[in-house]
Amino acid sequence: MNNKIKVLIGDDSAETGVSTANKLREKGMYAYTRRKDCGVILESIKKDPPDAAVLDISSQNGDIISLMKTVREMGVKPPVFIVTSAYDNEFIEKQVIENGASKFLLRPCSADDLCAAINSALGDRASSFSDDMEVVVTDMIHQLGVPAHIKGYHYLRTAILYSIEDKTLLDSVTKLLYPTVAGIYDTTSSRVERAIRHAIEIAWDRGNVDTLNSFFGYTVDTGKGKPTNSEFIALITDKLRLRYKSALRTH
What we know:
Elements: E1 6-9, H1 14-26, E2 30-33, H2 38-47, E3 52-56, H3 64-73, E4 80-85, H4 90-98, E5 101-106, H5 111-143, H6 151-165, H7 173-185, H8 189-206, H9 209-216, H10 229-243, H11 245-250
Parallel strand pairs: 1-2, 1-3, 3-4, 4-5
Pfam families: Response_reg, Spo0A_C
Binding site for Ca(2+): 11-12, 56
Protein name: Stage 0 sporulation protein A homolog
């Protein structure tokens, strides 16, 4: 179950909810049903957030748009929302998409269509987050004074991005992180290490001290020495993980 996509079906009727859950299970997903009630669905998401939630626009005791807003404000990992409706209404579709739904599907929809919508929504979110984070990291190392034309710039950016995705790489930079980066650029771990070291030296020697201090919060003494590769990567990774904590929970 741990590797399966977890899907909450906001309908526990035998003809719709249970049937849909069974079909999704046949496709390898972990699907379960909850009553077609906004309060019940909200409580379930709060206690055990799914990867995706398939909800009908006609759910009782509340409305789906308010439910999606509440989930985003709760501080839990929000699922991707797939909203279904028995009626083809462009206004409703526009409203639910603008307020957080990833997909709007007309009922009845096949298990294949629903499965494709869930996979597409999860893929879109991962891709969007990765693209946005690459821009953030690129801008950050540029501000720190690392020139874009050197190899260490690219190695450093990749190392930070991978460390944001998987913080355990920082537990063994030499044995895990450098080989990972080296494999991407078809080079060796030692060359990656040297190139990143060179990039950090340039940033430390030529960069603006105030900018460096604003990023590192005086955790590294600019007068006593440069940070190690591990320190540099870890400090930036931690800073970005804290800044984008909410987004990382959804990723």
